Structures are given as structure tokens and as C-alpha cells.
Amino acid sequence: MRRSPNKNRNIAALGGYTRLMDRPRNHGRGSAANPRNRFERHETVLDEGAEHDQPSTSTVWLPDRSRTLIARNQSPDLGFDASLNPYRGCEHGCAYCYARPTHEYLGFSAGLDFETRILVKEGAALRLREELSSPRWVPRPLALSGVTDPYQPGERRWGVTRACLEVLAEFRNPVVIVTKNHLVTRDVDLLAELASHGACTVFVSITTLDRGLQRVMEPRTSTPERRLDAIRLLSEAGVPAGVMVAPVIPGLTEHEIPSILEAAAQAGARHASWVLLRLPWGVKDLFREWLERTFPDRAAKVLNRIRSTRGGRLYDADFGTRGRGEGPVAEHIERLFRVSRRKAGLETPPPALRTDAFQRPAGEQLTLFA
């Protein structure tokens, strides 16, 4: 096991190592340990035979001191250029999560730290209101969120995502949500209100319908059945709901594409998309360790198929191929998805979100003139 010796110093720079909540759980984690942070020059390596404390698997919630909320990007392969993330880190603990390396910018590890040290933007709604009230803000769709899941388990306690949605509904600013959690249905009232102005769409991410696989690969997400139920409830409420088959893992989940799309269509999904597995930076080693630990009999096959879609490597960050891959295996997945989508009747593209209903409340207008 490896630990960063400078972790306390980096956390102090964020505003203090204040424990907002430390709650032990018995559920599994996606990572087994904390690998070295790639930005740290030194590390402490403990003797394998020596007795030492194991890394805590309790979730610790920490305050986030970010001064701005809306993040911008210029990535040509993303369907949005502005996003907001209520949380940093994600308790869902998905073994493959491409967002894990973002925790290293905070002095944490991309391993257990990412799923047990979660930063909460408690003042997010206030900052969002300030940014939407600014005359510099040009109404545009906001992705909620671009990195970690806005409906991870802690949202039940903190309610940061709902507070942000209340602001978005008040301003009628369009939003796109991607989540793996049934908790999104709690906010169906706000989502339906936004949808009435053509300002909302929700993608429910479904990686597998195999509950056993979901339990070990995405340990704290909603079950496949619950995610399908979320699609149903959203659709019944008039919220445009789609399914995101993501990530597709070659050799492990690609064969499920037809059944996932069929089940989603029956639940009321209107559109569908997919993304190939992405393993940037340290996620490559974390996923390989998880695969070899969980499925030792097929690990080599899966890794080889992943490499076949990435030019012989486990990841290629090129904008043109990072979401789809290349080569015969990637082409097979693309064809399988297109054929299955057509059979399921999900070829309708997601609705183009409207911005013409955007409004600044009267009080905000007076603030601008002041």
C-alpha cells in the first residue's frame, strides 16, 4: 500500500481537514488501495510483512472552497461547453471511472480516496445564482455534471444538486443530466418544470443488466432495475429521458448492448448513446487491478480487447477516438449499437434544448442595475 506523505498539507490548502460526516458502511468499494498521486515527488512505501493500519473505507465529506461553479471546456468531442459539479470525488466507486485522476489535483489518490474523500460545494446554489445573474452569462445548456455523478449517495443528505436545480428552474436555464442513480426521480418536479420550457433532458447511464456484475463494478450505484424505473418515472412525468450505454467494456459488457437498449425502450427512453471505456492516467492500473482481482479468468482477454481499440495501448486520449476507439473491435461495437438502437426504436436524437425561455428574476435585474 502507498500513501502520499503530503496529503495533510494539500488538504489544508483547501480550507482545513474538517470532517463534515464520517459514516462507516459495509458496502464494497471499487478500489482496494490508494496508489501514488502522480504529482507527488515522494511517497511512503510500507513493508509488506509489517503490521500497519489499512486505509479507511469510511466516507468523509469535506468542504469545497471553490470560488466559481460553472466550468468551461473546449473539447471538440463533447456536446457541451459549460458544466457544473456539485461534488468532487464520487462515492459510487465505479472501478472504471475516468474522473478518478481529477482527485490527484487536490492532493488525494485516484484510488480509495476518490470514493471516500468527497468534497461538497455547499454554497453551489448561491454561486450559480450569481453567475447566471451576471450580464456576462449567455444562456446555454449546462451539463450536470461533467465529471462526478450529481446524484451520488451523499446528495440525499446535502441536497446540493437539488438546490442548483431550483436555481436553474427559476432562471429557466437548460440543463443536461447524466446519472447512474435512481435519486434523480426525487427532483422530477423541477425537471418537469424545466422540460415544459424545452430546457431539460436526462440520460440514465446503464452499463450492465447483470446485477452481480453491477454490484462489484459499480458498488454504490442504483441497481439496473432501479435505473430502468428512473427512466420510466421521468418519461411519465414528461421529462425527455434517454439511456447512455456507458462505458462499453470490450470483452465484458459489449454483448449486453441489445438487451440494454430494448429494456430502456420498454421503460420509456426516447434516445440512446454510448461511450467506449476510457482509462486515462492511473485509471489504467486501477481497472487492471480490479479486473485481475475480480475476474482473473477473463482479465487477459478483456485487456487485450481494450488494447485492440486503442492502437495497442489501454488508452488513447485523442479527441477523435477517445469516446469510440478504432479498429475492428470498435467498429463491431459501433455496428452492434446502431443495429440494436434501430430495432429498439431509439433512433430519435435528443431534443435540442431551448434558451429562449431564459429569464432573470426581477430581483436579479434590479441587482444588475445597482
Features:
370 residues; alpha/beta; 5-stranded parallel sheet; 13 helices; 13 strands; 33% helix
Describe the model.
The protein is globular, with a radius of gyration of 21 Å. Helix content is 33%, strand content 14%. The strands form four sheets. A five-stranded parallel β-sheet has the order 9-10-11-12-13, with helices on one face. Helix 9 links the parallel strand 12 and strand 13. Helix 3 runs parallel beside helix 5, helix 5 packs parallel to helix 6 and helix 9 packs parallel to helix 12 (328-344). The protein contains 13 helices and 13 strands. The chain has 370 residues and is an alpha/beta fold. The protein has helices at 7-12, 112-116, 124-133, 155-158, 160-171, 188-195, 211-217, 224-236, 257-267, 283-294, 299-308, 328-344, 362-369; strands at 2-3, 21-23, 44-45, 59-63, 70-72, 82-84, 87-88, 117-120, 142-144, 175-179, 200-205, 241-248, 271-276. The model is unreliable at 1-26 and 366-370 (pLDDT under 50).
Give the helix/strand class.
Answer: alpha/beta
N-to-C CA distance: 56 Å
Whole-number mean pLDDT: 89
Strand content: 5-15%
Gross morphology is: globular
What is the secondary structure topology, with strand pairs?
Layout: E1 2-3, H1 7-12, E2 21-23, E3 44-45, E4 59-63, E5 70-72, E6 82-84, E7 87-88, H2 112-116, E8 117-120, H3 124-133, E9 142-144, H4 155-158, H5 160-171, E10 175-179, H6 188-195, E11 200-205, H7 211-217, H8 224-236, E12 241-248, H9 257-267, E13 271-276, H10 283-294, H11 299-308, H12 328-344, H13 362-369
